[in-house]
Design a protein that fits this description.
three-stranded mixed beta sheet, 174 residues, globular, alpha/beta, 37% helix
Length: 174
């Protein structure tokens, strides 16, 4: 974050325009600790519907889970068709990207992906879209600390070969 501060820019979209909003997709490295494993086909279908309808897509942060995957190359290898579809849509002016707390390195790839990266989207006069991590008392102002904790969490998941999510009673883990 020291080299690439969060963008402080709001994108305005007209209020009379349809749009879809997705958030926290968390594309990882394709391993068992990647929470998006096995969902590419359905998400690609959704993206094709969005593209066919000509509707604008707002991604409200965390499309890539850098702490889980460690490198963008691993994400690209695991979820290349999804990133290609999003890049194609962005090239057509159909994607706006709101920066999220797992997006530490998104600035290194925004030109490649052709994403218009911002801090918020305002739709008309009555809707504002943000990622929301800035309102979490454990993350706001402590982005680096939160990133290291998340990285440690993912290392444990990778070592155990399973997800560890809370509340534990609602997730199938070891």
């Amino acid at each position: 974050w020291a080299r690439h501060p969060a963008p402080d820019r709001t994108v305005r979209l007209p209020g009379d325009r349809s749009l879809y909003v997705v958030s926290d997709v968390h594309l990882g490295d394709g391993s068992r600790s990647d929470s998006f494993v096995g969902k590419d086909h359905e998400f690609l279908g959704f993206l094709e519907d969005v593209r066919r309808e000509g509707v604008h897509l707002v991604i409200a942060g965390d499309i890539v889970d850098f702490p889980q995957a460690f490198t963008f190359t691993r994400v690209l290898r695991a979820h290349g068709p999804v990133l290609h579809a999003l890049s194609r849509m962005a090239g057509e002016g159909g994607v706006t990207y709101v920066w999220g707390n797992h997006d530490i390195d998104i600035f290194l790839y925004r030109d490649l992906l052709r994403w218009d990266v911002c801090s918020a989207v305002e739709v008309g006069d009555h809707l504002r879209i943000e990622h929301g991590h800035q309102y979490d008392p454990h993350i706001a102002g402590n982005e680096w600390r939160a990133a290291w904790i998340t990285l440690g969490h993912h290392l444990v998941e990778r070592t155990l070969g399973t997800w560890i999510r809370t509340p534990l009673g609602e997730f199938y883990t070891l």
